[in-house]
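step: validate -> pass
step: tokenize input -> pass
step: predict -> running
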Amino acid sequence: MIKHIVASLSILLLSSAALCAEITPYGAFNYKYSHDENSSGVAYNKLEDNGSKIGLDFAEPSIEGSSIGAFAKLEVGVDTDDAASDTFDSRLAYVGLDLDIARVSVGRQSHPFTDNIGGKTSSFNVYGSSADYNYASRSSQSIAVSSELSGFTVDTLGIVDGSSSNTDAFDEIEITVSANLFGSDISVGWADDVNNDISYWGVGGKTELGPLTVGSSYTIYDAATDKAAIEATAGYSIFTVGFGDRESTGSYYTGGVAKEIASGLTVYAEAEMADLDSGTDTTSYSLGTKYSF
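step: predict -> pass
step: emit ->
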């Protein structure tokens, strides 16, 4: 079935290649100075790239007058320091169909469990997001389906990478359900690492309380030994604070400021103190600038 879907997606996209699709470029140049302590408490200073990227969004509202639309994305990380063997590192690369009932895509894609659960507390440029359990941020060899029904958004993703030693159709599969309830953006989700017999469960929410934006997530690592993690952030104006606790790892206290000083140009300063279960506490801080387009 998956082979048929991939073949259909390829044929339909190629058939519309001659048409004028909407192409939207985007990206960010992000650079930082950091003073970090490692797990042994040894500090080091470094000036380096902090996740610069460029990308293209493609959209074709309809194919030959039908109600079927096509879309694609190509996003690469840019190693502005030329510190590795690859200047460009693939982040996202997928193609899909926009149908009446759902959006279906294949390629290298982001994980809905990570985006919709842990993403509720992804508020910092450098630190934070250390206290949640998930399978991965992005994966290749994936198929994703997203649909909306009565105010609920259902996102699913499956990975077929050929590493499974059993007869299961997917090597990893996950699903999230999201909705705006009581003025809050709430998501619940489940992910199953089929090959390693590990499951992930989670719930996340984000809401605005007047000038205050609050996000939280609770995730469970379900294996031979279950573990839980909780994370919360609060933002007011240019200030953001966060707290996270990950079982068997440690607790994290994060704070930061970010200010857009020109159109697309943001400067930021962040610090994090980690109270690690290993017995070594660490303190880190960073200063950076990001230009987004």
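step: describe -> Residues 1-18 have pLDDT under 50 and may be disordered.
step: cleanup -> pass
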